[in-house]
């Protein structure tokens, strides 16, 4: 197994994406270049609406760049494929299929026989601790369980890269932490490239080898930050000095862009001004 | 001795010696939280059963109240603008029902109506469901077919009676056709509606798993639209009965609708009510059959 070189070299070069609107063409992403080396875990972080999901969808093959190129292992991305597994924020499990049916879906599309599908699906579900739920329908599962099925389903076809679009955004903090560990665990075993989109700074640091930070719309890559924390990552590391330094750095980068993204007159100075001195009077009487 | 029986024995021994708390902890240690879950499930089941029982009890009560009101209105021949003078009482209807159940002619009326429903409705379902699915998937087909269906749809099936008589060589065929027309549009429109509501993220998920056009249609669009298809079938079945009875009253020689109308012409008032009750029961039965089918076909929707 180890003799097989990891695959899944994602390269996005000078990516532009504009879409038509009433005011002419609006640029969503401008000149973004990113790459994910084989077996690497890379996150894209940025304020909401910065086009980070757009980039991910382009790698998945749902969007074509207006200009620029998207390749995986040197081949241009042309439409979605089972080579690029995707995990969605809304879980997007098929409600009419059981947990195992969902995991088997990709294998069935590959033309695998019933027995091979079942064996593979059960093995993966076992790894994710979901074997007891193989015959349940998704609506009976908790959010964390649903997303575990979502990840297992995406991995079942043996993709070269795994794309995740804010997969843990809808989960509570505790569940999210556990899911992050499960994901890194699986990633380390499978040695595939991961491109992970999030707006959660801690999540990005905890999971990634590298982080791309995007600007507000139109999105471009503002900074690229290496995460030198060792593997395996443990929750204790989140209170280390190194982690805090990275968090500080990313926070100041993001904050600037978030303020821009919010638009209007909000600036760092204006935020300071919000501490109004009431001189002992109630706010109502002043207003 | 198997492991489970050993466990059970251990629990049993514990239950003899220790107080209740110990018993519970022994149970939870053995099967890991299962008892608390099943206790909650049991409580829920009892609660649901109580709710179901209440529903059954109230339902029976209201039916009995209806019968009592009917009996009262007819027994006292109430005449306050609405005249119950000639309306048969429930007892008279029961008498005529017993008589009818021994009469093979009555059964042939019922069977013929059921056959017409089955042919007309099945024909409508077999054409409307695939057509709706394809119209939902292929815009060009929708653009071609939709204007025609929109013009034809508001025409009530009963208005088709004269046209149907001209179109088809036999009376039987025109009645089946009217039943078909009645159920066709609700099935088509609901199927089409179901297709427009398919979550696009699920389609994308399927594409990422290597599904191509045909597989997406079969594995995503079709099951996603199924609940709406069944809504269409239920509504369609209701309209099919409405259309059938109207058609039988106007142009039929047999069937339960004809039976009801004939009873009026022959001044057999009890048979009018019998025909009505019979239509009600048949309609109820056929929508229950569709619900049952939906329950079987959509196990995830239970």
Tally the helices of chain A: what do you get?
A: 9
Number of domains of chain B: 2
CATH superfamily of chain A: P-loop containing nucleotide triphosphate hydrolases
CATH class of chain A: Alpha Beta
The CATH topology of the largest domain in chain B is MetI-like fold
User: Total number of β-strand segments of chain B?
Assistant: 2
Which residues of chain B form runs of ≥5 with pLDDT under 50?
1-35
Order of H and E elements of chain A: EEEHEEEHHHEHEHEEHHH
Please report the number of helical segments of chain B. Answer: 12
Largest interface (CB within 8 Å) is between: A-B, 27 and 21 residues
Which architecture name of chain A does CATH use?
Answer: 3-Layer(aba) Sandwich
- Determine the N-to-C terminus distance of chain A: 71 Å
Report on this model:
The complex is a heterodimer of chains A (287) and B (302). With 287 residues, chain A is of the alpha/beta class. Chain A is globular. In chain A, the strands form 2 sheets. Chain A has a 6-stranded mixed β-sheet with strand order 6-7-8-3-9-10, with helices on both faces. Chain A has a 4-stranded antiparallel β-sheet with strand order 2-1-4-5. Chain A has one domain (10-83, 159-286): P-loop containing nucleotide triphosphate hydrolases (Rossmann fold, 3-Layer(aba) Sandwich), CATH 3.40.50. Chain A has helices at 52-60, 99-109, 114-127, 143-156, 173-190, 201-207, 241-262, 268-272, 283-286; strands at 10-21, 24-36, 41-45, 67-72, 75-76, 84-87, 161-165, 193-198, 210-214, 221-226. Chain A has 9 helices and 10 strands. In chain A, helix 2 packs across helix 3. In chain A, 36% of the residues lie in helices and 22% in strands. Chain B has 12 helices and 2 strands; from the N terminus they run αααββααααααααα. Chain B has helices spanning 3-17, 20-31, 34-75, 90-101, 104-137, 139-152, 161-167, 171-196, 200-208, 213-251, 256-265, 269-297; strands at 79-80, 82-83. Chain B is flat and about 70 Å long. In chain B, strands 1-2 form a two-stranded antiparallel sheet. In chain B, strand 1 (79-80) and strand 2 form a beta hairpin. Chain B is an all-alpha fold. In chain B, helix 5 (104-137) crosses helix 11 and helix 7 packs across helix 8 (171-196). Chain B folds into 2 domains: 3-63, no CATH class; 93-301, MetI-like (MetI-like fold). Chains A and B meet through strand 6 and helix 2 of A and helix 9 and helix 10 of B.
